[in-house]
């Protein structure tokens, strides 16, 4: 399936250095995995993590979960070797940390263009610095761009803002990135919820991200997967409503009318686009199981 058509309800970070977690993920019901070489890996473990990760990914076993490798930045001592190692296994996507300009995307794209194993490799961008957020629209136009991942921990650090349950200090950044992503047909996945044992807090933040328009949530622990999968999936009631809207609109159209009424609300062509997207998402989710 085209990467853009896949679901991204649950996008789990796995430290590239943790063999047990890399193995466990093969049986977790996640839509996508970020195999991390950046912040989840200690400095002294970086080279070993790169070797372990490339070997693990070459062996396979992750089924239809989208596989994304987060590299260290090109300005670090590990960035170049990370990209070279990732390119050799022809990954579905590489994720660049702390992207602040489309130039950073261009430079990686040029290297991917020159590598025979990377014809279909996408570039994803961590959106997690004030400069990156301000340049979101330009970054979204970069070659091979597939999606944005919100890095709300780094962003909060850079803004010097407080962590609040309503994430008010982050709203402008979340919405700016969503608008840029939607303008250019990219996926946009929300940031992590750090308190991985707090189910109620996670659910509330997932619901907020979903209501904003996010495709899903990045996660740090297997215990968070079920809630994200549930919140970001269309509910049975939404699927049933979408079907009724489509049927009612087709009936109206057959009579030469451009508007139908369902449950006391008008249904026009634009609502049918949303209804069809809901059904397509439900189908894509079904194909994951
Ligand atoms: C948070 C953790 C350090 C907790 O680890 P641990 O104490 O080992 O948890 P458990 O004992 O409860 O683990 C139970 C089993 O689950 C496996 N496990 C744990 N985490 C993962 C995972 N992420 N993926 C897959 N499997 C996982 C354990 O191996 C246990 O397995 P088993 O023994 O077989 O039952 C840990 O969860 C962790 O390291 N999480 C990831 C942290 C991380 O990736 N951080 C970086 C990304 S966040 C970020 O950088 C965001 C962004 O850049 C920003 O700026 O916001
Ligand atoms: Mg970060």
Describe the 3D structure.
The model has no long low-confidence stretch (mean pLDDT 97). The strands form 2 sheets. This protein has an 8-stranded parallel β-barrel with strand order 1-2-3-4-5-6-7-8, surrounded by 4 helices. Strands 9-10 form a two-stranded antiparallel sheet. The chain has 12 helices and 10 strands. Helix content is 46%, strand content 16%. The protein has 2 domains: 230 residues, Alpha-Beta Barrel (TIM Barrel), CATH 3.20.20; 51 residues, no CATH class. The protein is an alpha/beta fold and 289 residues long. The protein is globular, with a radius of gyration of 20 Å. The structure holds ligand LIB3CWND and magnesium ion (MG). The site of ligand LIB3CWND has 23 residues, from strand 1, helix 1 and helix 7. Its cofactor is Mg(2+). Keywords: Magnesium, Metal-binding. Belongs to the HpcH/HpaI aldolase family. This is (3S)-malyl-CoA thioesterase.
Give a topology summary:
Blueprint: E1 10-15, H1 19-24, E2 32-36, H2 46-59, E3 66-70, H3 79-88, E4 93-96, H4 102-113, E5 122-127, H5 130-134, H6 136-140, E6 145-150, H7 152-159, H8 171-183, E7 187-190, H9 199-212, E8 216-219, H10 225-232, H11 236-254, E9 260-262, E10 265-267, H12 269-286
Parallel strand pairs: 1-2, 1-8, 2-3, 3-4, 4-5, 5-6, 6-7, 7-8
Antiparallel strand pairs: 9-10
Bound molecules: ligand LIB3CWND and magnesium ion.
Counting helices, strands and paired strands, the structural category is: alpha/beta
Major beta sheet summary: 8 strands, parallel, barrel
What is the mean predicted local confidence, pLDDT? 97
Distinct ligand kinds: ligand LIB3CWND, magnesium ion
The gross shape turns out to be: globular
User: How many domains, in number, for the residues?
Assistant: 2
Strand content of the residues, in percent?
Answer: 15-25%
Segments where pLDDT lies below 50 for 5+ residues? none
CATH superfamily of the largest domain: Phosphoenolpyruvate-binding domains
Strand order of the largest sheet: 1-2-3-4-5-6-7-8
How many β strands by DSSP?
Answer: 10
Determine the fraction of residues in helical runs and give it as a percent range.
40-55%
Gyration radius over CA: 20 Å
* Element order: H for helix, E for strand: EHEHEHEHEHHEHHEHEHHEEH
CATH-scheme architecture of the largest domain:
Alpha-Beta Barrel
CA(first)-CA(last) distance: 14 Å
The CATH class assignment of the largest domain is: Alpha Beta
Say what the CATH topology of the largest domain is.
TIM Barrel
Tally of DSSP helical segments: 12
């Amino acid at each position: 399936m085209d990467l853009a058509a896949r679901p991204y309800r649950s996008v789990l970070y796995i430290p590239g250095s943790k063999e047990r977690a890399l193995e466990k993920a093969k049986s977790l019901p996640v839509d996508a995995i970020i195999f991390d070489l950046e912040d989840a890996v200690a400095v002294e473990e970086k080279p070993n993590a790169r070797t372990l990760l490339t070997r693990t990914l070459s062996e396979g076993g992750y089924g239809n979960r989208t596989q994304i490798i987060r590299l260290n930045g090109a300005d670090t001592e590990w960035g170049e070797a990370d990209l070279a190692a990732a390119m050799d296994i022809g990954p579905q996507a590489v994720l660049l940390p702390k992207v602040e300009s489309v130039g950073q995307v261009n430079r990686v794209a040029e290297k991917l263009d020159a590598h025979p194993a990377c014809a279909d490799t996408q570039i994803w961008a961590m959106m997690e610095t004030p400069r990156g957020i301000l340049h979101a629209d330009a970054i979204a136009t970069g070659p091979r761009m597939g999606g944005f991942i919100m890095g709300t921990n780094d962003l909060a650090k850079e803004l010097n803002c407080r962590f609040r349950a309503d994430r008010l200090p982050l709203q402008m950044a979340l919405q700016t990135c969503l608008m840029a992503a939607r303008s250019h047909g990219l996926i946009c996945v929300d940031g992590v919820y750090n308190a991985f044992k707090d189910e109620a807090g996670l659910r509330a933040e997932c619901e907020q991200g979903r209501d904003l328009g996010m495709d899903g949530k990045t996660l740090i622990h297997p215990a968070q997967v079920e809630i994200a999968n549930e919140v970001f999936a269309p509910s049975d009631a939404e699927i049933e409503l979408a079907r009724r809207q489509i049927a009612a609109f087709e009936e109206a159209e057959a009579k030469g009318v451009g508007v139908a009424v369902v449950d006391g609300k008008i249904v026009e062509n634009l609502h049918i686009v949303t209804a069809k997207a809901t059904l397509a998402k439900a189908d894509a989710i079904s194909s994951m199981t």
